[in-house]
Amino acid sequence: MVRKIARRSRSYPKIDVHTHVALPEVLALASKVKIRGKEPGKQHWVPSASRQEHGRQSSSASATLSKPKPRLKDMDRMGVDMQVISMNLPTPSYWADGATGQQIARQCNDSIAEFVAAYPERYIGLGAVPLQDQSRTVKELEYLAKIGLKGVAIPSHVRAKDLGIPKFRNFWAKAEELNLPIYIHPRGFTHDQRLHEFFLWNSVGQPLEETLAMTSIIYEGILDDFPKLKIIIAHGGGYLPYYAGRTDKAYESRPETRKNIASRPSDYLSRFFYDTVIFDRDMLPLLVKKAGDRQIMMGTDYPRGEIEEDPIGFVRRSKDLSPLSKDRIIGLNAAKLFNI
Ligand SMILES: [Zn+2]
Fold first, then answer.
1. What is the pLDDT of residues 203-261, one digit of tens each?
2. 291 C-alpha to center of ligand 1: Å?
3. How far is the CA of 262 from the centre of ligand 1 (A)?
4. Which end of the chain is more exposed for a tag (fewer CB within 10 A), N or C?
5. What pLDDT digit, counting tens, does each position of 151-203 carry?
6. Does residue 133 contact residue 102 with C-beta atoms inside 8 Å?
7. Distance CA 262, CA 223 (A)
């Protein structure tokens, strides 16, 4: 596969690691799960103004969200050889019982595999797991690896519980054992009472969720205990990579922050992978400085909402990055991570 793509792109595949699909058969199953309620993360976090706009964008992107062929012309226009696809579904399905959660995850995995099979040289599929049930999660990880999916997409919390807590250790252990990269992409923010206006639940809340997911994984010792684990954080890692000085300062002055970890929080930044969906070229060299140029991969958030329309140009025009760093970000890192 590499050789075939390399001929088309001359050198290496240009890979967009952050794209979404919304597959009708999975949505139909998930719609049976009721998520309304007062608990953090359960209430309907999207205000009505955002919901209306979201609905409008979803219906205008319905073909590209649900079918493999209509996306290809956009990919060609953007210069993208391959997209990593995932479904931003799991959060609501986590409120279901384990058996229902697994049924939804299984449908998602089968549907993603079918989507990829239509153009295997253009798509890389990430699956889903019912994280509310650890034994079913372990079985589903084995299944999705067996059908050729290359990783798993999860949100930034499970029923408002942080990802690093002991309850989820079996998941991290199995993902490491199967060498499956885990892609963390939030949906809204759990405690969003002050983020309803101005789309802040998304523009501010999602980077906060990414920051909380990373800090939970770091402080609970997940990266110490599972050294081969590969975790990708959406949207350039939220706020943490750009403001880790304060967590480091606390690490030095507060013993309770050090109980599970062997190094300063910022030392773990190079253990995560990141995408380039940050819309600010000045920040990309800083992310490279903090995490390393082998940890960052091109992304767009295609096909709906806040999309980077020129993902290659975004990287190529970035100042203070070497040509090799740019090539790594545009495709070499993702090709290695997903074994393309
Ligand atoms: Zn996204």
1. 999 999 999 999 999 999 999 999 999 999 999 999 999 999 999 999 999 999 999 99
2. 21
3. 32
4. N
5. 999 999 998 899 999 999 999 999 999 999 999 999 878 887 888 888 888 89
6. yes
7. 10
Q: Determine the distance separating the centroid of ligand 1 and the alpha carbon of 4, expressed in angstroms.
A: 28
Helix (H) or strand (E) holding 54: helix 48-60
| 3-class SS of residue 84 | strand
Identity of the amino acid at 201: W
Which residues, including other chains, have CB under 8 Å from residue 321's CB and lie 6 or more apart? 284, 285, 288, 293, 315, 329
Closest to 8 measured CA to CA, from 117, 119, 86: 119
Q: At what angle do helices 169-178 and 134-146 cross, to 10 degrees?
A: 20
Q: How far is CA 75 from CA 236, 291, 311, 326, in A?
A: 21, 28, 11, 19
For 132-145, letters b (16+ CB in 10 Å) and e give bbbebbbbbbebbb
Which are the contacts of 67, defined by CB distance < 8 A and separation ≥ 6? Answer: none
131 within 8 A of 90, measured Cβ to Cβ: yes
* Ligand 1 center to 257 CA (angstroms): 31
Query: Distance (Å, rounded) from C-alpha 182 to C-alpha 193?
Result: 29
Q: Are 277 and 236 in contact (CB under 8 A)?
A: yes
Higher pLDDT, 90 or 21: 21
Q: Is the pTM of this model over 0.85?
A: yes
Ligand 1 center to 103 CA (angstroms): 24
Which runs of E-coded beta strand occur in the chain?
Answer: 15-21, 82-87, 123-125, 152-154, 157-158, 161-162, 182-184, 231-233, 272-275, 296-297
DSSP letter assigned to residue 329? I
